[in-house]
Write a structure and sequence with these properties.
Blueprint: H1 2-34, H2 44-77, H3 79-85, H4 91-125, H5 130-142, H6 148-179, H7 189-214, E1 218-222, E2 226-229, E3 241-246, H8 247-271
Antiparallel strand pairs: 1-2, 1-3
Length: 275
């Protein structure tokens, strides 16, 4: 049954989401064609398209999130939501289905976001002279840039962090939307949901930052290795380090995400007010 729920949620949300991605993909293809050619310097059109792509890349990240918020609220807490609760499935299955679908769409947004910058970098680098590329490579080496293998490992860790942040964001959104449909918060309408999200975000972010900077265990992604340091993140020397992850904050986010999903399922099953 979960598979059918996921399939239906994909179909229901695809109409809007695919329209957004189609526009972005068209701009992506048009820019790729514009970057083709033998010119050794970027043309004004190519520079304009590069700037336009940057704006589009941020829109790709932001707009789908708001669309998914609207879909989650409509499909569970409106007239359509009433029909959802008549299905012979548990609230946890409804929540899991919408979580998987939301994660997939947001992940696709991040992929397109990254693809935009790869296109811009490849297009512009293909236009500069070999001498300029050599200078850039020398500058990169002088800054002790990571070797290819180390860079790939670092990017994989960064990708894992990004995926986890998507899950945490979805947990916050689902929890606050559901809470806004419970008395007495449901009397405030959409404004109540926005206020609740801001409150939950500020509180969780404050705890996250506190634990990140005080918990004596930090994951360090170096230019040649990944290792654990038994110090708070603020006491780690940053020289030669690509980025650091305070494990105190990461553990808190993992626990908070689980608790918010559990609380959301409980509110859906016991407390929610279906309009």
């Amino acid at each position: 049954m979960l598979g059918k729920l996921i399939k239906n949620d994909f179909k229901a949300s695809a109409h809007t989401m695919l329209g957004i991605y189609a526009v972005a993909f068209a701009a992506f293809v048009a820019s790729g064609i514009a970057f083709m050619g033998d010119n050794t310097e970027p043309t004004p059109l190519q520079l304009i398209l590069a700037v336009l792509l940057i704006f589009i890349s941020f829109a790709i990240l932001i707009v789908p999130v708001f669309q998914l918020i609207s879909y989650f609220n409509k499909s569970l807490y409106s007239n359509q939501g009433y029909l959802s609760y008549t299905l012979p499935v548990k609230g946890s299955s409804l929540l899991l289905s919408k979580g998987i679908v939301s994660f997939s769409w947001i992940l696709l947004s991040f992929v397109q976001f990254a693809a935009v910058y790869v296109l811009i970098y490849a297009g512009l680098m293909n236009r500069v002279s070999p001498e300029v590329r050599e200078v850039l490579n020398q500058l990169y080496q002088a800054m002790n840039g990571p070797e290819k293998d180390a860079l790939i490992k670092s990017l994989l860790v960064l990708l894992a962090v990004a995926l986890f942040e998507i899950i945490f964001l979805i947990a916050q959104i689902f929890f606050t939307i559901t809470l806004s449909n419970v008395k007495p918060f449901n009397s405030f309408g959409n404004l109540g949901g926005i206020i609740l999200f801001i409150v939950v975000f500020l509180i969780s972010n404050s705890i996250f930052m506190k634990l990140t900077t005080t918990f004596p265990l930090t994951l360090c992604v170096n230019f040649d290795r990944v290792y654990l340091a038994k110090f708070p993140m603020t006491e780690i020397a940053t020289e030669g380090i690509f980025f650091t992850i305070g494990l105190g904050g990461a553990i808190f986010q993992a626990a908070a995400a689980v608790l918010m999903f559990i609380a959301t399922e409980y509110l859906m099953s016991k407390k929610v007010n279906i309009k």
